[in-house]
Amino acid sequence: MKKIVKYSSLAALGLVAAGVLAACSGGDKKEGEAAGKKEIIVATNASPKPFNYEDNGELTGYEIEVVRAIFKDSDKYDVKFEKTEWSGVFAGLDSDRYQMAVNNISYTKERAEKYLYAAPTAKNPNVLVVKKDDDSIKSLDDIGGKSTEVVQGTTSAKQLEDYNKQHADNPTVLNYTKADFQQIMSRLSDGQFDYKIFDKIGVETVIKNQGLDNLKVIELPSDQQPYVYPLLAKGQDELKSFVDKRIQELYKDGTLEKLSKQFFGDTYLPAEADIK
């Protein structure tokens, strides 16, 4: 009988000890989760250069480095980048796979209804690009009947789709593609279509880096906001407030100007009054 009591007591003590250890373990885990940072996944198509691109397998570019500066030393957020197709950027924001995106994204009313725009980080007006020996296109008034390549869902695609609605008697020919901007510009240089509308910085960078000396750039008047913005998923209001504040700080301390000169070769920043 004494042996049974002794073994029972030892078993009871073992259960108590196990319970204490489990409680401590659970407490440590809960404390770790509470002290942990929130992971922010930022989507990008890694194009066009110099806004977003890969260098030896590593993401970099003006917008990528701005995002890194935004979250540097944050005690609340950890940032992670994920490369995806252009359409995947928005699908991921819609499904909450991504909380934020940077991809040379300009302002449109349609996007503003679905997503949150952070403060702008760059100024980047659109230009018209044609071959130097083509004198038939001097402005947007001349693109009727001419052909171009566009990626569905982009600002330039939407602009030209609206153009065709207004010029149904002589629309421009839109060839949709999933090619990246560098490939599109190479095909323009090869004469596979007539013109391309895109942002000035991206165009000038690709022409220089790819040696597309047979192309010329035509400045365009624009009534659109010529700014580039980080885009956030709906419901990320707290994150937007953090990002906006950090962009303002990076503007004032000269970080944005430094990165602009590093990647663009000059200062392409929004007006300070618009960074809010």
Main pleated sheet: 6 strands, mixed
CATH architecture of the largest domain: 3-Layer(aba) Sandwich
Number of DSSP-assigned strands: 13
CATH topology of the largest domain: D-Maltodextrin-Binding Protein, domain 2
**Order of helix and strand elements from N to C terminus:** HEEEHEHEHEEEEHEHEHEEHH
Structural class: alpha/beta
Number of helices: 9
User: Uncertain regions: pLDDT < 50 for 5+ in a row?
Assistant: 1-34
Integer count of domains: 2
Instruction: Give the class-level CATH name of the largest domain.
Output: Alpha Beta
Characterization of the model:
This protein is an alpha/beta fold. It folds into two domains: 38-121 and 229-274, D-Maltodextrin-Binding Protein, domain 2; 126-219, 3-Layer(aba) Sandwich (D-Maltodextrin-Binding Protein, domain 2), CATH 3.40.190.10. Helix content is 42%, strand content 21%. The chain is built from nine helices and 13 strands. Strands 1, 4, 5, 6, 7 and 13 form a six-stranded mixed beta sheet that branches. Strand 2 and strand 3 form a beta hairpin. Helix 2 packs antiparallel against helix 9 (255-264). The longest helix is centred in the N-terminal third of the chain and has 34 residues, at 2-35. The N and C termini lie far apart (80 Å). Residues 1-34 have low confidence and may be disordered.
